[in-house]
């Protein structure tokens, strides 16, 4: 079972909180709030996204790369290649 399926309810709860943060940012922009408040909202959203990314990345490494139960080098390499592809996109 994939770790995203196993942790689905926890991950979805984080996404719902991020959705609320995005809505708060949208409301702040509509209300013409000051730039400092807008920047704080953006920082909060970015922190939440980074936290979610770190959590899923960590579990990906544990499940698809470092798990001692993986006996196939090809399977382990696939997990590593997937991770590399995501990291290349993420750090652009």
Order of SSEs, N→C?
Answer: HHHH
What characterizes the major β-sheet? none
Beta-strand portion reads under 5%
Proportion of helical residues:
over 70%
Please identify the structural class as seen in this structure.
mainly alpha
Q: Residue-averaged pLDDT, rounded?
A: 93
Précis, in short:
This protein has 92 residues and is an all-alpha fold.
What report would you give on this structure?
This protein has 92 residues and is an all-alpha fold. 82% of the residues lie in helices and 0% in strands. It has 4 helices and no strands. The mean pLDDT is 93.
Topology at a glance:
Blueprint: H1 3-6, H2 8-30, H3 35-64, H4 73-90
List keywords for this structure.
4 helices, 92 residues, elongated, mainly alpha
């Amino acid at each position: 079972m994939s770790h995203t399926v196993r942790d689905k309810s926890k991950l979805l709860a984080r996404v719902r909180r991020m959705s609320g943060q995005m809505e708060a940012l949208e409301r702040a922009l509509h209300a013409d709030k000051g730039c400092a408040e807008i920047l704080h909202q953006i920082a909060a959203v970015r922190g939440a996204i980074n936290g979610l990314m770190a959590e899923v990345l960590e579990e990906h490494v544990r499940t698809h790369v470092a798990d001692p139960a993986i006996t196939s080098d090809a399977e382990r390499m696939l997990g590593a290649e997937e991770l590399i592809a995501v990291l290349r996109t993420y750090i652009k």
